[in-house]
Amino acid sequence: MKPRVLFIVTGDPRTSQRPAEAVRIAAGVGVWKRADISVYLREEAVLALGESAGGLVDEEDYAQYWSMLAESSQPIYVQKNAAALRNLGPAAIPFAEISDDQLAELTAGQTCVIRF
User: Fold this and answer.
1) Which of 104, 108, 98 is CA-nearest to residue 78?
2) How far apart are CA 15 and CA 1, in angstroms?
3) Which residue among 24, 48, 81, 83 has the highest number of C-beta atoms inside a 10 angstrom radius?
């Protein structure tokens, strides 16, 4: 059985390079197909999903790495009803909104949880 790794991203991509780094690492590890990777974005981190990454720190990374995650069918989850979703606009890739209870269930089933 492959390890399951969940990346929880809470940083604001407008002011921090950490969300871009999390997406880059998740995509890189996911390509190996030695682990099942999931990404969860919370609060302002959901803005990293915008089709137009203009104004985000390390904005060039998002187009490349989101597409890698999408190709590998890795799930992208976001905080249900996050206030930043209103400012997202079109998303670069599909995602699913999940509640805090669903996040707790998801987290419990992981081998490793990494927070950015």
Assistant:
1) 98
2) 38
3) 48
CA distance 61 to 67: 10
Are 115 and 8 within 8 A, CB to CB? yes
- pLDDT 10s digits, 94-110: 999 999 999 999 999 99
In three state form, how does the secondary structure of the chain look?
CCCEEEEEECCCCCCCCHHHHHHHHHHHHHHHCCCEEEEEECHHHHHHHECCCCCCCCHHHHHHHHHHHHHCCCCEEEECCCHHHHHCCCECCCCEEECHHHHHHHHHCCCEEEEC
CATH architecture of 4-115: 3-Layer(aba) Sandwich (3.40)
Type of residue numbered 63: A
pTM confidence score: 0.92
Q: Which two tokens stand for residue 77?
A: 């989850």
pLDDT at residue 53, as a whole number: 65
For residue range 74-90, what is the model confidence (pLDDT) as tens digits?
789 999 999 999 989 89
